[in-house]
Amino acid sequence: MLRLRDQADYLRLLTARIAGTSANQMLLVALGWQMYDLTRSAWQLGLVGLVQFLPALLLTLPAGHLVDRHDRRRLLALSLSLQCTVALGLMLASLGAALSAGWILALSVLLGTARAVQMPSLQALTPTLVPSSLLARAVATNSSVMQAAVVLAPALGGVLYGAGPAVVRRLQTLWRLSPESWGAAMVYGVSLLLLLGAISAVLSIRPRPVPPRAPSPGWRELTAGIRFIRDQPVMLGAISLDLFAVLLGGATALLPIFARDILHSGPEALGLLRSAPALGAVGVGLWLARRPLRRRAGVWLLVAVALFGLATIGFGLSRSFWPAFLALAITGAADMVSVVIRQTLVQLETPDEMRGRVSAVNSVFIGASNQLGEFESGATAALLGPVGAVVAGGLGTLCVVLLWWRWFPALARRDSLTPP
């Protein structure tokens, strides 16, 4: 009997994903809090997401081709190395009290560049490490374990950020630096160590065969992933549903505003709020890993996204910490159902020789829903206020579900998540 725990290289990749995700989440907690602390601007918070998305958009096609023609392990290690550079730059700027909004945005561009390679490398590498019969369980396990890291890492990042100044005040005789800067520096330093561990785990994976390199790929080859998704109505519907639902309904960029100005809390509360969606996702992910969805996958996907929109509205209307935390946890639980169904569909129905290009296009959709969604949230909050922006986004998500149910009937009719 095949078991996931017997797949050694898959476990190495899982370890790398845990360390890398934890580092990334801690980094984003400190980065978001510092940006809002420096500017008090929802627009600037939104720009952080936009400048991360633009490199991913521009590099999608060449990144997908690289992943299909080169060692996916080394490309993943390269992307993690770029993130090390970001963490180191933020740490040194914080220690030197030289951090500015411009520096944060510049390093966010580099972070977006790293993600342009990281996401297709990860998505294309996973199916080569497990048998197809274990793929649905692997996707659910990946997502649940990643979300577990997202539960702990932001909370730890918030605690380190808040506790750092107090610790440094006791050691202030060592260096004459602002104690407040050390909270963020501690977060970035821990992130750097985790990223180095992730690189080591990735490079320990045994090499897989690499397809013959094309000497000079043409436009048709670069855009093959776009055409492939376009011609698969179920896959197109699932990916675009996530894009527009999270683009409209995501509230992550506004969490520093909610934590400081609406819930009247500090960076510790921000870390917990960022952890809340992952907490809901962990339980659902573990359930799906043990009991995979076997019937009515399309209906479950659409219902889950509708629940995501309703919970987003609930978060926007919350005025105290625990109702807000609960609403965000529900968004994470609903999103986990969507993630497992969508990623399983993409990986099962894509030939291995095209996984890099298809995963690259998929990563742009995901990046648009997340990073571009952060910009949309910031821009809308500048016009409607943070509460109005979140509630309007949740209502928009519900409208998207109704439209997709009508426009993609093949998606609504999709029954199983087994190999075709």
UniProtKB/TrEMBL annotation:
Coiled coil: none annotated. The chain crosses the membrane at residues 12-36, 42-63, 138-162, 182-203, 234-259, 271-290, 297-315, 381-405. It holds the Pfam family MFS_3. SUPFAM superfamilies: MFS general substrate transporter. It comes from the Bacteria. The keyword Transport applies. Keywords: Cell membrane, Membrane, Transmembrane, Transmembrane helix, Transport. It is a multi-pass membrane protein. The keyword Transmembrane applies. InterPro entries: MFS_trans_sf, TM_effector. GO terms for cellular component: plasma membrane. It is found in: Cell membrane. This is MFS transporter.
